[in-house]
Design a protein that fits this description.
There is one protein chain. The protein has helices spanning 147-150, 188-203, 213-216, 238-247, 251-272, 284-293, 312-330, 337-342, 411-436, and strands at residues 2-4, 8-16, 22-31, 38-42, 47-50, 54-58, 64-68, 73-76, 82-92, 98-111, 117-132, 135-138, 161-162, 176-178, 184-185, 308-310, 350-352, 357-361, 367-370, 375-380, 388-395, 406-410. It is an alpha+beta fold. The chain has a twelve-stranded antiparallel β-sheet with strand order 1-2-3-4-5-6-7-8-9-10-11-12, with helices on both faces. A six-stranded antiparallel β-sheet has the order 17-20-21-22-18-19. A two-stranded antiparallel sheet has the order 13-15. The chain is globular.
Length: 445
């Protein structure tokens, strides 16, 4: 650790892994004058802000994904413009019963039939489905389409859809690397499944935006008199604004400085090893880490463009989960974590990380990040009232939690992953349906 002026410090830490390797983490940390906010910029490019009422994570120069202590979420660009915000609300339904739900407003633009672009807030609703112990599960309420909407999804393509560069609806190879690539699709549901996986690796939990406003609002409960669902957009936490402003356009230079500081600290460890035997060899993994960061070794960077590796067994399981969720959506049912936990298939269920979250490594109590479509499954199926679950990392991007590690994930975060999964399933059903419909095009010319 090296203290810097202005309440900052550079930290390089190393934890031995159960697999025999080591995790080396380097970051620059700044504590606010009040001591209530801690912001970090990591050498792999991701950023975090810990405030009194929230925690936020960002990858590279991407959005800050904010999770508040009350369970609500938001996402903001570096300039403070919101991608989406959430609020708790209640409605009175038939019979006078009050229901609670989370209302998420996504601020996006849609293309109208005349080609014009119109900015609209798309509102989605997540009713309180069940409370187990101290955890309230808010689940995405899917839109139920007419029966004929689903028919084409269960019929083979008339002509196999060949995976070529001109395919407009094939999973992009730059995003996911399936263990067994598919040369052509004959089953539309397999295509939907693979695109749901690819979407998860792209979107980082930003809800699909190319949905007609009427569709997005179709499942909305009736608003109470005086309710304005397009009220003034809530601003990002001031601490996030301050942290983003501090990094600003100097992020690249800041990372260069941080990596230089990390290298200096590693050299200091090596220099002192002769007089402090307990330090001998401790810089070896850090040197490899620094080599990777500076381009003299294998890349270990969360900003790497390498696609997410998807083992074939995980792909097959996720395809099955997509079919299951389509059947649930057809009947207006929500995808709920408590249902999965109680089921026979819970022990093989595969989850796909949505927005970036910090999780705890069971082996040593350190922290690592899940994001960008990382795949996890239960290491041990939790009891119904457990607030956290032990999850095994199946596959992840460089710089995130490592494969085969066991990490603790809040069950509320697992439900968030299921909500994002259901929304992606809904989106990909519509894309595939449009591609197959009369006049639809699956391959560009």
């Amino acid at each position: 650790m090296r203290n810097l002026p202005g309440g900052e410090r550079v930290v390089v830490s190393e934890q031995k892994l159960a697999t025999g390797g080591a995790r080396v983490v380097a970051y620059r940390e700044k504590t606010s004058p009040t001591g209530q906010t801690v912001s970090r910029v990591y050498a792999d490019g991701h950023r975090s802000v810990q405030g009194q009422t929230f925690h936020s994570e960002a990858v590279g120069r991407g959005p800050q994904f904010v999770k508040y202590n009350n369970g609500l979420h938001a996402a903001y660009l570096a300039n403070g413009r919101p991608l989406y915000t959430e609020r708790l609300a209640t409605r009175t339904i038939e019979g006078g019963r009050r229901v609670s739900f989370v209302e998420r407003t996504t601020y996006t633009s849609i293309v109208l039939t005349n080609g014009a672009v119109q900015s609209v807030p798309i509102v989605r609703y997540y009713p309180l489905a069940v409370t187990v112990g101290a955890v309230a599960f808010y689940a995405y309420q899917p839109i139920v389409y007419q029966p004929e909407f689903y028919v084409p999804l269960y019929q083979p393509f008339v002509t196999p859809l060949v995976v070529v560069s001109g395919c407009l609806i094939c999973p992009p190879a730059a995003v996911v690397a399936f263990q067994q690539p598919t040369p052509a699709y004959t089953d539309p549901m397999d295509l939907v499944g693979d695109n749901v996986i690819a979407d998860g690796a792209i979107a980082d939990a930003v809800p699909p935006a190319n949905t007609a406003q009427a569709d997005a609002l179709a499942s909305a409960p009736p608003a109470e008199p005086g309710t304005d669902v397009q009220a003034d957009v809530p601003p990002p936490p001031p601490e996030v604004v301050a942290a983003e402003s501090a990094s600003g356009e100097g992020t690249s230079a800041e990372l260069v400085d941080l990596r230089s500081e990390a290298k200096d600290l590693t050299q200091s460890v090596d220099a002192n090893a002769a007089t402090q035997p307990e330090l001998a060899g401790s810089g070896q993994d850090a040197r490899a880490y620094n080599a990777a960061l500076t381009g003299t070794g294998q890349t270990n960077n969360a900003d790497s463009a390498a696609p997410l590796a998807v083992p074939e067994y995980a792909r097959i399981q996720l395809r099955k989960e997509v079919r299951f969720d389509v059947a649930m959506q057809r009947n207006g049912h929500m995808l709920l974590l408590p249902t999965i936990i109680k089921s026979d298939y819970g022990k093989i269920f595969v989850f796909q990380a949505a927005s970036p979250i910090d999780v705890t490594v069971v082996a040593d109590g350190s922290q690592c990040t899940l994001a960008s479509g990382d795949l996890i499954g239960f290491s041990r199926v939790p009891a119904g009232a457990d607030p956290v679950a032990q999850m095994k990392v199946i596959s992840s991007h460089a710089g995130h939690c490592q494969g085969n590690e066991t990490v603790e994930v809040a069950v509320s975060d697992l439900q968030d992953m299921l909500n994002a999964f259901s929304e992606r399933v809904e989106r990909e059903m519509k894309r595939t349906n449009a591609c197959m419909s009369s006049g639809g095009a699956c391959v560009g010319t």
